[in-house]
Protein backbone atom coordinates (compact mmCIF):
# COMPACT_ATOMS: atom_id res chain seq x y z
CA UNK A 1 0.00 0.00 0.00
CA UNK A 2 1.87 3.10 -1.14
CA UNK A 3 1.68 6.25 0.93
CA UNK A 4 1.63 8.28 -2.30
CA UNK A 5 -0.84 10.48 -3.98
CA UNK A 6 -4.51 9.48 -3.90
CA UNK A 7 -6.22 9.01 -7.24
CA UNK A 8 -8.55 11.91 -6.68
CA UNK A 9 -8.81 14.70 -4.14
CA UNK A 10 -12.29 15.12 -2.72
CA UNK A 11 -14.06 18.45 -2.84
CA UNK A 12 -14.88 18.36 0.87
CA UNK A 13 -13.19 21.57 2.01
CA UNK A 14 -10.82 19.60 4.28
CA UNK A 15 -7.04 19.84 4.31
CA UNK A 16 -4.96 16.69 3.84
CA UNK A 17 -4.04 16.96 7.50
CA UNK A 18 -7.70 17.07 8.54
CA UNK A 19 -8.47 14.15 6.27
CA UNK A 20 -5.63 12.19 7.88
CA UNK A 21 -7.27 12.26 11.30
CA UNK A 22 -10.80 11.51 10.14
CA UNK A 23 -12.28 8.69 12.14
CA UNK A 24 -12.27 5.44 10.17
CA UNK A 25 -15.11 2.93 10.17
CA UNK A 26 -13.84 -0.42 8.92
CA UNK A 27 -15.82 -3.59 8.26
CA UNK A 28 -14.32 -7.07 7.84
CA UNK A 29 -16.95 -9.40 6.48
CA UNK A 30 -17.39 -12.43 4.24
CA UNK A 31 -17.25 -16.20 4.84
CA UNK A 32 -13.44 -16.49 4.94
CA UNK A 33 -10.99 -16.61 7.80
CA UNK A 34 -9.16 -13.64 9.19
CA UNK A 35 -11.95 -11.14 9.83
CA UNK A 36 -11.34 -10.84 13.56
CA UNK A 37 -7.69 -11.74 13.23
CA UNK A 38 -7.07 -8.79 10.91
CA UNK A 39 -8.99 -6.52 13.30
CA UNK A 40 -6.72 -7.57 16.17
CA UNK A 41 -3.74 -7.06 13.85
CA UNK A 42 -4.97 -3.50 13.27
CA UNK A 43 -5.18 -3.12 17.04
CA UNK A 44 -1.41 -3.76 17.17
CA UNK A 45 -0.87 -0.65 15.07
CA UNK A 46 -3.27 1.34 17.23
CA UNK A 47 -1.46 0.12 20.35
CA UNK A 48 1.86 1.16 18.82
CA UNK A 49 0.46 4.69 18.39
CA UNK A 50 -0.28 4.78 22.11
CA UNK A 51 -4.03 4.74 21.50
CA UNK A 52 -6.51 3.42 24.04
CA UNK A 53 -8.18 0.28 22.71
CA UNK A 54 -11.58 -1.10 23.61
CA UNK A 55 -12.50 -4.59 22.42
CA UNK A 56 -16.14 -5.67 22.64
CA UNK A 57 -16.71 -9.32 21.76
CA UNK A 58 -20.33 -9.89 20.79
CA UNK A 59 -20.11 -13.68 21.01
CA UNK A 60 -21.69 -16.17 23.33
CA UNK A 61 -18.60 -18.30 23.77
CA UNK A 62 -15.72 -16.53 25.45
CA UNK A 63 -13.32 -19.34 24.63
CA UNK A 64 -12.33 -18.23 21.15
CA UNK A 65 -9.64 -15.67 20.48
CA UNK A 66 -7.98 -16.26 23.83
CA UNK A 67 -4.60 -15.98 22.10
CA UNK A 68 -5.30 -12.51 20.76
CA UNK A 69 -6.85 -11.53 24.08
CA UNK A 70 -3.85 -12.64 26.12
CA UNK A 71 -1.45 -10.93 23.70
CA UNK A 72 -3.35 -7.63 23.73
CA UNK A 73 -3.69 -7.75 27.52
CA UNK A 74 0.10 -8.20 27.86
CA UNK A 75 0.65 -5.30 25.43
CA UNK A 76 -1.86 -3.11 27.27
CA UNK A 77 -0.14 -3.83 30.58
CA UNK A 78 3.36 -3.19 29.20
CA UNK A 79 5.11 0.15 29.72
CA UNK A 80 4.86 0.89 25.99
CA UNK A 81 1.97 1.63 23.63
CA UNK A 82 -1.66 2.20 24.50
CA UNK A 83 -4.06 0.67 26.99
CA UNK A 84 -6.35 -2.28 26.28
CA UNK A 85 -9.77 -3.04 27.75
CA UNK A 86 -11.28 -6.34 26.64
CA UNK A 87 -15.00 -6.84 27.19
CA UNK A 88 -16.67 -10.20 26.56
CA UNK A 89 -20.35 -10.82 26.26
CA UNK A 90 -19.72 -14.54 26.68
CA UNK A 91 -18.38 -14.08 30.20
CA UNK A 92 -20.88 -11.37 31.07
CA UNK A 93 -20.01 -7.77 30.25
CA UNK A 94 -17.44 -6.47 32.70
CA UNK A 95 -19.52 -3.43 33.63
CA UNK A 96 -22.53 -5.49 34.77
CA UNK A 97 -23.26 -7.09 38.10
CA UNK A 98 -22.98 -10.85 37.83
CA UNK A 99 -26.59 -11.20 39.08
CA UNK A 100 -27.90 -8.89 36.35
CA UNK A 101 -25.94 -10.63 33.65
CA UNK A 102 -27.12 -14.11 34.66
CA UNK A 103 -30.73 -13.33 33.82
CA UNK A 104 -30.01 -11.81 30.39
CA UNK A 105 -30.84 -13.44 27.09
CA UNK A 106 -28.29 -13.23 24.28
CA UNK A 107 -30.42 -10.55 22.68
CA UNK A 108 -30.50 -8.48 25.86
CA UNK A 109 -26.78 -8.94 26.34
CA UNK A 110 -26.03 -7.84 22.78
CA UNK A 111 -28.25 -4.77 23.18
CA UNK A 112 -26.53 -3.93 26.47
CA UNK A 113 -23.12 -4.25 24.76
CA UNK A 114 -24.20 -1.76 22.13
CA UNK A 115 -25.53 0.62 24.82
CA UNK A 116 -22.09 0.58 26.45
CA UNK A 117 -20.37 1.23 23.11
CA UNK A 118 -22.69 4.22 22.67
CA UNK A 119 -21.78 5.52 26.14
CA UNK A 120 -18.07 5.04 25.45
CA UNK A 121 -18.24 6.75 22.05
CA UNK A 122 -20.09 9.71 23.58
CA UNK A 123 -17.42 9.94 26.30
CA UNK A 124 -14.57 9.40 23.80
CA UNK A 125 -13.37 6.66 26.09
CA UNK A 126 -11.23 4.84 23.49
CA UNK A 127 -9.40 5.87 20.36
CA UNK A 128 -9.76 2.45 18.69
CA UNK A 129 -12.73 0.08 19.02
CA UNK A 130 -12.99 -3.52 17.88
CA UNK A 131 -16.67 -4.54 17.78
CA UNK A 132 -15.98 -8.20 17.20
CA UNK A 133 -18.81 -10.19 15.58
CA UNK A 134 -21.08 -7.19 15.95
CA UNK A 135 -22.60 -7.83 12.52
CA UNK A 136 -24.66 -10.71 13.95
CA UNK A 137 -26.82 -8.70 16.40
CA UNK A 138 -27.51 -6.32 13.50
CA UNK A 139 -28.21 -9.18 11.10
CA UNK A 140 -30.60 -10.79 13.56
CA UNK A 141 -32.41 -7.47 14.14
CA UNK A 142 -31.41 -7.23 17.80
CA UNK A 143 -29.59 -3.96 17.25
CA UNK A 144 -31.02 -1.39 14.84
CA UNK A 145 -28.66 -0.76 11.92
CA UNK A 146 -30.01 2.75 11.32
CA UNK A 147 -29.23 3.67 14.92
CA UNK A 148 -25.73 2.23 14.62
CA UNK A 149 -25.06 4.36 11.54
CA UNK A 150 -26.46 7.44 13.24
CA UNK A 151 -24.30 6.95 16.33
CA UNK A 152 -21.18 6.19 14.29
CA UNK A 153 -21.86 9.13 11.98
CA UNK A 154 -22.18 11.56 14.87
CA UNK A 155 -19.42 10.24 17.11
CA UNK A 156 -17.17 12.98 18.43
CA UNK A 157 -13.40 13.28 17.96
CA UNK A 158 -11.24 10.82 16.07
CA UNK A 159 -12.43 7.42 17.29
CA UNK A 160 -11.78 4.54 14.90
CA UNK A 161 -14.19 1.62 14.82
CA UNK A 162 -13.64 -1.82 13.29
CA UNK A 163 -16.64 -4.14 13.00
CA UNK A 164 -16.24 -7.83 12.15
CA UNK A 165 -18.50 -10.70 11.22
CA UNK A 166 -20.42 -12.31 8.39
CA UNK A 167 -23.58 -10.87 6.91
CA UNK A 168 -22.62 -7.20 7.33
CA UNK A 169 -25.78 -5.23 6.49
CA UNK A 170 -25.55 -3.45 3.16
CA UNK A 171 -26.31 -0.10 4.82
CA UNK A 172 -23.27 -0.62 7.04
CA UNK A 173 -20.87 -1.46 4.21
CA UNK A 174 -22.19 1.55 2.27
CA UNK A 175 -21.50 3.75 5.28
CA UNK A 176 -18.06 2.35 6.13
CA UNK A 177 -14.81 3.84 4.83
CA UNK A 178 -12.93 0.58 4.59
CA UNK A 179 -14.60 -2.72 3.71
CA UNK A 180 -12.73 -5.96 3.20
CA UNK A 181 -14.41 -9.20 2.29
CA UNK A 182 -12.61 -12.34 3.35
CA UNK A 183 -13.35 -15.13 0.89
CA UNK A 184 -12.85 -18.73 1.87
CA UNK A 185 -10.79 -20.39 -0.80
CA UNK A 186 -9.69 -23.48 1.07
CA UNK A 187 -9.74 -24.60 4.68
CA UNK A 188 -8.20 -27.65 6.39
CA UNK A 189 -11.56 -28.52 7.94
CA UNK A 190 -12.78 -29.20 4.41
CA UNK A 191 -10.19 -31.98 4.33
CA UNK A 192 -11.54 -33.42 7.57
CA UNK A 193 -9.06 -31.79 9.91
CA UNK A 194 -10.37 -30.44 13.18
CA UNK A 195 -9.43 -27.03 14.53
CA UNK A 196 -5.84 -26.81 15.72
CA UNK A 197 -4.53 -25.20 18.87
CA UNK A 198 -2.37 -22.19 18.00
CA UNK A 199 -3.93 -21.97 14.55
CA UNK A 200 -7.64 -21.68 15.17
CA UNK A 201 -7.49 -20.23 18.69
CA UNK B 1 -15.71 -21.31 13.59
CA UNK B 2 -17.09 -24.26 15.57
CA UNK B 3 -14.73 -26.83 17.02
CA UNK B 4 -17.24 -29.55 16.13
CA UNK B 5 -17.24 -32.44 13.79
CA UNK B 6 -15.61 -32.03 10.39
CA UNK B 7 -17.83 -32.68 7.40
CA UNK B 8 -15.81 -35.67 6.31
CA UNK B 9 -13.07 -37.73 7.86
CA UNK B 10 -10.15 -38.35 5.53
CA UNK B 11 -8.95 -41.84 4.78
CA UNK B 12 -5.33 -40.97 5.57
CA UNK B 13 -4.63 -43.48 8.34
CA UNK B 14 -4.02 -40.67 10.85
CA UNK B 15 -5.66 -40.27 14.22
CA UNK B 16 -7.50 -37.03 15.03
CA UNK B 17 -4.67 -36.24 17.43
CA UNK B 18 -2.07 -36.68 14.68
CA UNK B 19 -4.13 -34.56 12.31
CA UNK B 20 -4.32 -31.85 14.95
CA UNK B 21 -0.56 -31.34 14.98
CA UNK B 22 -0.06 -31.49 11.21
CA UNK B 23 1.94 -28.53 10.02
CA UNK B 24 -0.30 -25.93 8.39
CA UNK B 25 0.63 -23.98 5.28
CA UNK B 26 -1.58 -20.90 5.01
CA UNK B 27 -1.74 -18.34 2.22
CA UNK B 28 -3.35 -14.89 2.47
CA UNK B 29 -3.68 -13.42 -0.98
CA UNK B 30 -5.90 -11.15 -3.07
CA UNK B 31 -6.03 -7.38 -3.64
CA UNK B 32 -7.74 -6.49 -0.36
CA UNK B 33 -6.41 -5.26 2.95
CA UNK B 34 -5.56 -7.48 5.88
CA UNK B 35 -3.34 -10.15 4.33
CA UNK B 36 -0.31 -9.38 6.50
CA UNK B 37 -2.43 -8.04 9.32
CA UNK B 38 -4.27 -11.33 9.63
CA UNK B 39 -0.94 -13.20 9.53
CA UNK B 40 0.34 -11.13 12.44
CA UNK B 41 -2.97 -11.73 14.20
CA UNK B 42 -2.36 -15.46 13.79
CA UNK B 43 1.09 -14.91 15.28
CA UNK B 44 -0.64 -13.67 18.46
CA UNK B 45 -2.23 -17.09 18.83
CA UNK B 46 1.08 -18.82 18.14
CA UNK B 47 2.76 -16.58 20.71
CA UNK B 48 0.05 -17.45 23.23
CA UNK B 49 0.89 -21.14 22.74
CA UNK B 50 4.49 -20.40 23.67
CA UNK B 51 5.68 -21.11 20.14
CA UNK B 52 8.84 -19.59 18.69
CA UNK B 53 7.95 -17.18 15.88
CA UNK B 54 10.11 -16.17 12.94
CA UNK B 55 8.92 -13.29 10.75
CA UNK B 56 10.63 -12.77 7.38
CA UNK B 57 9.56 -9.60 5.61
CA UNK B 58 10.29 -9.86 1.90
CA UNK B 59 9.80 -6.15 1.22
CA UNK B 60 12.19 -3.43 0.21
CA UNK B 61 10.78 -0.80 2.53
CA UNK B 62 11.18 -1.60 6.19
CA UNK B 63 8.91 1.25 7.23
CA UNK B 64 5.60 -0.55 6.91
CA UNK B 65 4.19 -2.74 9.65
CA UNK B 66 6.27 -1.10 12.32
CA UNK B 67 3.24 -1.25 14.63
CA UNK B 68 2.94 -5.00 14.32
CA UNK B 69 6.71 -5.35 14.62
CA UNK B 70 6.92 -3.31 17.81
CA UNK B 71 3.98 -5.17 19.33
CA UNK B 72 5.38 -8.61 18.51
CA UNK B 73 8.83 -7.60 19.78
CA UNK B 74 7.31 -6.50 23.10
CA UNK B 75 5.39 -9.78 23.30
CA UNK B 76 8.50 -11.80 22.44
CA UNK B 77 10.48 -10.02 25.14
CA UNK B 78 7.76 -10.44 27.78
CA UNK B 79 7.92 -13.21 30.36
CA UNK B 80 4.89 -14.91 28.78
CA UNK B 81 4.28 -16.65 25.47
CA UNK B 82 6.81 -17.56 22.81
CA UNK B 83 9.85 -15.85 21.36
CA UNK B 84 9.82 -13.56 18.32
CA UNK B 85 12.57 -13.01 15.75
CA UNK B 86 11.78 -10.37 13.14
CA UNK B 87 13.90 -10.32 9.99
CA UNK B 88 13.59 -7.54 7.42
CA UNK B 89 14.94 -7.60 3.93
CA UNK B 90 14.44 -3.83 3.71
CA UNK B 91 16.96 -3.17 6.46
CA UNK B 92 19.30 -5.92 5.35
CA UNK B 93 18.74 -9.43 6.65
CA UNK B 94 19.88 -9.64 10.25
CA UNK B 95 22.16 -12.66 9.61
CA UNK B 96 24.22 -10.87 6.93
CA UNK B 97 27.22 -8.61 7.30
CA UNK B 98 26.25 -5.05 6.48
CA UNK B 99 28.93 -4.92 3.76
CA UNK B 100 27.53 -8.04 2.05
CA UNK B 101 24.00 -6.77 2.20
CA UNK B 102 24.85 -3.37 0.70
CA UNK B 103 25.92 -4.88 -2.62
CA UNK B 104 22.85 -7.09 -3.03
CA UNK B 105 20.10 -6.50 -5.55
CA UNK B 106 16.50 -7.01 -4.44
CA UNK B 107 16.51 -10.30 -6.29
CA UNK B 108 19.64 -11.49 -4.51
CA UNK B 109 18.27 -10.34 -1.17
CA UNK B 110 14.98 -12.20 -1.74
CA UNK B 111 16.85 -15.37 -2.74
CA UNK B 112 19.04 -15.08 0.37
CA UNK B 113 15.93 -14.66 2.54
CA UNK B 114 14.53 -17.88 1.12
CA UNK B 115 17.85 -19.68 1.68
CA UNK B 116 17.69 -18.70 5.36
CA UNK B 117 14.08 -19.88 5.63
CA UNK B 118 15.23 -23.23 4.18
CA UNK B 119 18.04 -23.45 6.75
CA UNK B 120 15.66 -22.58 9.58
CA UNK B 121 13.03 -25.09 8.44
CA UNK B 122 15.69 -27.82 8.23
CA UNK B 123 16.87 -26.95 11.75
CA UNK B 124 13.27 -26.62 13.05
CA UNK B 125 14.29 -23.24 14.37
CA UNK B 126 10.77 -21.84 14.68
CA UNK B 127 7.34 -23.31 15.26
CA UNK B 128 5.51 -20.53 13.38
CA UNK B 129 6.80 -18.66 10.32
CA UNK B 130 5.37 -15.55 8.71
CA UNK B 131 6.81 -15.16 5.21
CA UNK B 132 5.42 -11.71 4.62
CA UNK B 133 5.00 -10.65 0.97
CA UNK B 134 6.84 -13.80 -0.09
CA UNK B 135 4.45 -14.27 -3.01
CA UNK B 136 6.20 -11.48 -4.94
CA UNK B 137 9.66 -13.11 -5.30
CA UNK B 138 7.80 -16.22 -6.50
CA UNK B 139 5.58 -14.22 -8.84
CA UNK B 140 8.61 -12.44 -10.31
CA UNK B 141 10.46 -15.72 -10.80
CA UNK B 142 13.24 -14.88 -8.35
CA UNK B 143 12.41 -17.86 -6.15
CA UNK B 144 11.37 -21.13 -7.78
CA UNK B 145 7.84 -22.11 -6.76
CA UNK B 146 8.48 -25.83 -7.30
CA UNK B 147 11.40 -25.67 -4.89
CA UNK B 148 9.30 -23.83 -2.31
CA UNK B 149 6.63 -26.54 -2.48
CA UNK B 150 9.26 -29.29 -2.22
CA UNK B 151 10.88 -27.68 0.84
CA UNK B 152 7.53 -26.99 2.51
CA UNK B 153 6.29 -30.47 1.70
CA UNK B 154 9.34 -32.12 3.24
CA UNK B 155 9.82 -29.86 6.24
CA UNK B 156 10.35 -31.80 9.46
CA UNK B 157 8.27 -31.61 12.63
CA UNK B 158 5.22 -29.41 13.12
CA UNK B 159 6.30 -26.05 11.72
CA UNK B 160 3.46 -23.80 10.57
CA UNK B 161 4.06 -21.41 7.68
CA UNK B 162 1.92 -18.42 6.66
CA UNK B 163 2.69 -16.74 3.34
CA UNK B 164 1.18 -13.38 2.39
CA UNK B 165 0.99 -11.21 -0.70
CA UNK B 166 -0.86 -10.70 -3.96
CA UNK B 167 -0.47 -12.95 -6.98
CA UNK B 168 0.02 -16.18 -5.03
CA UNK B 169 1.06 -18.76 -7.64
CA UNK B 170 -1.66 -21.27 -8.37
CA UNK B 171 0.66 -24.19 -7.49
CA UNK B 172 1.11 -22.65 -4.04
CA UNK B 173 -2.60 -22.18 -3.35
CA UNK B 174 -3.21 -25.75 -4.56
CA UNK B 175 -0.56 -26.98 -2.14
CA UNK B 176 -1.63 -24.89 0.86
CA UNK B 177 -4.03 -26.15 3.54
CA UNK B 178 -5.63 -22.80 4.25
CA UNK B 179 -6.13 -20.14 1.60
CA UNK B 180 -7.95 -16.88 2.19
CA UNK B 181 -8.47 -14.27 -0.46
CA UNK B 182 -8.87 -10.71 0.76
CA UNK B 183 -11.10 -8.79 -1.63
CA UNK B 184 -11.04 -5.03 -1.68
CA UNK B 185 -14.58 -3.81 -1.41
CA UNK B 186 -13.94 -0.20 -0.45
CA UNK B 187 -10.95 1.77 0.73
CA UNK B 188 -10.67 5.35 2.02
CA UNK B 189 -7.89 6.08 -0.49
CA UNK B 190 -10.54 5.64 -3.19
CA UNK B 191 -12.25 8.67 -1.66
CA UNK B 192 -9.07 10.70 -1.86
CA UNK B 193 -7.88 10.11 1.68
CA UNK B 194 -4.21 9.43 2.23
CA UNK B 195 -2.91 6.68 4.47
CA UNK B 196 -3.47 7.30 8.16
CA UNK B 197 -1.06 6.76 11.03
CA UNK B 198 -2.33 3.99 13.28
CA UNK B 199 -4.59 2.67 10.56
CA UNK B 200 -2.31 1.99 7.62
CA UNK B 201 0.94 1.55 9.56
Automatic annotation (TrEMBL), chains A, B:
Gene3D superfamilies reported in the protein's UniProt record: P-loop containing nucleotide triphosphate hydrolases
SUPFAM superfamilies: P-loop containing nucleoside triphosphate hydrolases
Domain of life: Bacteria
Pfam family name, one: CobA_CobO_BtuR
Membrane spanning stretches: none
InterPro entries: CblAdoTrfase_CobA, P-loop_NTPase
Protein name: Cob(I)yrinic acid a,c-diamide adenosyltransferase
Organism: Kitasatospora cystarginea
Gene that encodes it: cobO
